[in-house]
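Mods, move this if it's the wrong board.
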Amino acid sequence: METTSQATDEVSDKDEVSEKAEKPVRGDAAAQSKAVDGYLKATFPWYGLDAAYTGPRTLMQAVAAADGTVQHGAVRHGSEPAVRPESPAPAAAADEGEEGDDRQRFAVVITVAASPARRSGDGTGQLDATTASSAAWLAGSGLLACTWPGQLDHTLRDDWLNQQTETAFELADDLDSPEWSTLSLPVDGVPTPFRYRESEYGWVLAGSTDSVHLGAYGRGMSAYGLGFARIEDLRTYEG
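Not the wrong board. Structure tokens:
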């Protein structure tokens, strides 16, 4: 995992994860086309859920380094999550039944470029090679970004988020710790081992293929029945 040797860059990555990786593409056709262009600039394949999933698919954001090299990105399956799932639902939402619950049924798949150790973008440090831990960190922080325990106000939520984010980083840095279990899921039809953990807020998993590292997080959709596949046509995620 990219850790102490890239402390400065990692801090900026944390901001990008919470602010960028959780932002789906909205707007007119031109904005969507620009977002797709960001994904197309990647030199690695993108992954999402396989054809067994038939629900909505949405582009989120492809994140690039200062030199324009795409490093990682995410795609969402299901509805955009409500950030405060534990807060009382308004009467209108309560009357919607399953539609209200759909706000908490989603799975986000993160693809991370398999990169060797390298110099930082500003040339002042050395970045470690990306690993499954990199994907686990992005997935863990992504889940936290769309979580807001209902009993917390804005100030307390900031403190809670900072604390939980540090915990997620530590957990991602040690995928062999007992907090993680092993889960085998198909990637392009091939059984692939993933490290998996769950909490009251949702689940997180991470693993590697021959070409990329994969992370995922979700709520309301069981991780045990998921399968991953290379995205052949990004247009299936445009709307």
